């Protein structure tokens, strides 16, 4: 029997629009959601529906106004909303990963070091982390001549592949994906989707935002559709999204 890696209960998040007129906008209205080990849950819905807000609350980039976000760790369940910042940073390194559309890398750092560092944070030795990083970068077809080049000079698609490699090397217990293949050409998109698809067999729980219907049909074991900060429907991709064109 599979067990939940993530449990979200009655999650609420509001934002105050200081730059406009100070009014408050509610992004999440009491959301409940579970993600089990090996399960790929895709979040669907229009822009502004609350999908990315949910990811950022789970990652603790945003603090919710109320509710609980519980991560099942090797030491038992942890309420992420109540965790001290230092403990949250440590947990992000080992058991919780986040892949956004944009790579954030230290200055003068190349792809090999970015990806190997992610492996080390997840408990790998220096040598094993470099081997795993090389395997991930090769699998995503990043030219080896670029592995030690400052990430800031890479193209958008190259940076996105580095981000995916870092998120999936010695993968964490829970991986959050926010439009991870948006900048990729068709061949590299296929490579990235194949890599993401392989995570389920490793028991990784994935919570992802895609606007790509074909990707959701291909990857998701469950699709959750958001409307105005609430879950409007959930089920298989075919049930929620209909037939893919």
UniProtKB/TrEMBL annotation:
Alphabetical UniProt keywords: ATP-binding, Nucleotide-binding
InterPro entries linked: AAA+_ATPase, ABC_transporter-like_ATP-bd, ABC_transporter-like_CS, ABC_transpr_LolD-like, P-loop_NTPase
Gene3D superfamilies documented for this protein: P-loop containing nucleotide triphosphate hydrolases
Keyword Nucleotide-binding recorded: yes
Chain ranges of the ABC transporter domain: 6-244
GO MF term set: ATP binding
Presence of the UniProt keyword Oxidoreductase in the record: no
Stored PANTHER family: IMPORT ATP-BINDING PROTEIN
Name by which UniProt lists this protein: ATP-binding cassette domain-containing protein
Taxonomic path: Bacteria, Bacillati, Actinomycetota, Actinomycetes, Mycobacteriales
């Amino acid at each position: 029997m599979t067990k939940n890696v993530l449990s979200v209960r009655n999650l609420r998040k509001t934002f105050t629009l200081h730059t406009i007129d100070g009014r408050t906008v509610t992004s999440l209205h009491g959301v409940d959601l579970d993600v089990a080990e090996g399960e790929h849950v895709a979040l669907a819905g229009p822009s502004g529906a609350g999908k990315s807000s949910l990811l950022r609350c789970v990652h603790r980039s945003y603090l919710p106004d109320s509710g609980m976000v519980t991560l099942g760790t090797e030491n038992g369940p942890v309420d992420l909303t109540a965790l001290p910042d230092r403990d949250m940073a440590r947990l992000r390194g080992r058991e919780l990963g986040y892949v956004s559309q944009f790579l954030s890398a230290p200055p003068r750092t190349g792809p090999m070091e970015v990806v190997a560092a992610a492996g080390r944070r997840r408990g790998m030795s220096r040598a094993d982390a470099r081997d795993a990083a090389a395997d991930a970068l090769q699998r995503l077809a990043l030219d080896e001549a670029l592995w030690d080049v400052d990430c800031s000079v890479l193209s958008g698609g190259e940076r996105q592949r580095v981000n995916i490699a870092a998120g999936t090397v010695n993968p964490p217990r829970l991986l959050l994906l926010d439009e991870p293949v948006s900048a990729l050409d068709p061949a590299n998109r296929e490579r990235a989707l194949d890599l993401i698809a392989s995570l389920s067999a490793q028991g990784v729980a994935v919570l992802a935002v895609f606007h790509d219907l074909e990707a959701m049909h291909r990857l998701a074991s469950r699709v959750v559709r958001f409307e105005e900060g609430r879950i409007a429907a959930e089920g298989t991709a075919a049930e929620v999204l209909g037939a893919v064109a």
